[in-house]
Amino acid sequence: MAQKKTEAGTGADAEPRGEGLRLRTWLRYLYHGSRPLAVKFRLAVIVVDVAIIAFFLASPILKNMGWAFYVLDYVIAALLAADLAARAYAYADIKDWLKRPIVWVDLFVLATLLFPAWLFNLGFLRMLRLWTLLNSDFFWRTVGHRFDDTRVEGIVRAMANLVTFVFVATGFVYATFLGHEGIAGYVDALYFTVATLTTTGFGDVTLPGPTGKLLSIAIMLVGITLFLRLAQALIKPAKVSYPCDRCGLHKHDADAVHCKACGNLLCIPDEGS
């Protein structure tokens, strides 16, 4: 789940004052602080992220704009590159930052933007940006801090996984099978993906050959798994985040009096505390 401490290390929450302060100090404050200015900055970054994801979703249609599409593509690449560079510089240890899988996903998305003519067929992987956003500590410290480590966060993460998979699979079907029987456009690819993922199986749109059949099987298996995880997140009892000071168990029932693991007496504050 989301980390409780700031990624930048100590001092990130102190608002920088005076002239001549290092750029890194400001970036740590903006990306990792909890003061109003830092929160407003991160909200603006998230709004831009959502707009970029909307562009990725519409890319199969917008690519017919010609040169204007590539101009917009490079503008978004510049924004994403600046954001990643700022996050890396604000991080306490860049080498440790580069070890995070989410970072490598974002770097790959950036590569598809910088080389659209060569990597456009892999452009469907840009929708992984939705997954990296909704699974990032950056998002949960800004928008979802009230739902941190709760049932709401689990539902949002499960839904993000499902939605991301739907659009990544749709993009792959569109890029690979466009022009084949039944796949005449992006909507056809989306229709096939959803029908297969839900195991509805209308049969009016099918993919040719063994490759198409294997892909359909993969979509069904992964789709069922993600649906089950979302259903599990929706129906499981709500938990609260309150670490036991004896055994360290982090999740407890909201009305728990004793720790289930060690029996230690708990004093979980309620909403009015």
From TrEMBL:
Any matching Pfam family: Ion_trans_2
Keyword hit for Nucleus: no
One GO biological process term: monoatomic ion transmembrane transport
TM spans (from-to): 41-61, 67-90, 102-124, 155-177, 189-208, 214-231
Annotated localization: Membrane
Key word Transport present: yes
Entry membrane topology: Multi-pass membrane protein
Major subcellular location class: membrane
Domain Potassium channel: 164-234
Keywords noted in UniProt: Ion channel, Ion transport, Membrane, Potassium, Potassium channel, Potassium transport, Transmembrane, Transmembrane helix, Transport
PANTHER family attached to this UniProt entry: CALCIUM-ACTIVATED POTASSIUM CHANNEL ALPHA CHAIN, SLOWPOKE 2, ISOFORM D
Protein name: Potassium channel family protein
